[in-house]
Design a protein that fits this description.
Elements: H1 8-11, H2 18-26, H3 28-40, H4 47-53, H5 58-69, H6 73-91, H7 96-102, H8 108-119, H9 123-134
Length: 135
């Protein structure tokens, strides 16, 4: 299977460890799924669409992804969304609500919870730290 996306785009991940990145690149279906999901953001990413894209059923894709990559596809999707949110925070000043929408979350509460889980701080804390650092 040849990827229609730039595989080096995944290498820019701040939150995926080296082992996970190597595993993704080792399995063409996995990298294709991740890059396709990233291209769909901020729209809703559905497992059945991703599985169909890589020629698998949703159940077999979910099992394959978890076994081969070492984390669930939904965990990777959360990281992709948070990376998008971090990039937006670094580039422009916007409300947390609009940040949630632009990264594929339905509410600022959901974004804040996921952001803290992945980054270790809330979007507001991250923004404050950025502002202090830039001065």
């Amino acid at each position: 299977m040849t990827s229609t996306y730039n595989e080096s785009a995944v290498l820019g991940s701040r939150f995926l460890d080296e082992v996970t990145l190597k595993r993704l690149h080792y399995y063409p279906r996995a990298i294709e799924a991740v890059l396709f999901a990233r291209s769909m953001l901020p729209e809703t990413v559905r497992l059945d669409e991703i599985a169909e894209r890589v020629g698998m059923t949703p159940a077999s894709f979910s099992r394959f992804f978890t076994e081969k990559i070492g984390m669930t596809f939904s965990s990777i999707l959360k990281i992709l969304r948070i990376e998008r949110a971090v990039e937006a925070l670094e580039l422009r000043d916007c409300s947390i609500e609009s940040l949630a929408c632009s990264s594929g979350y339905g509410s600022s509460c959901t974004l804040t919870r996921a952001f803290k889980e992945v980054v270790g701080e809330t979007p507001s804390e991250y923004r404050r730290r950025l502002l202090v650092y830039r001065q």
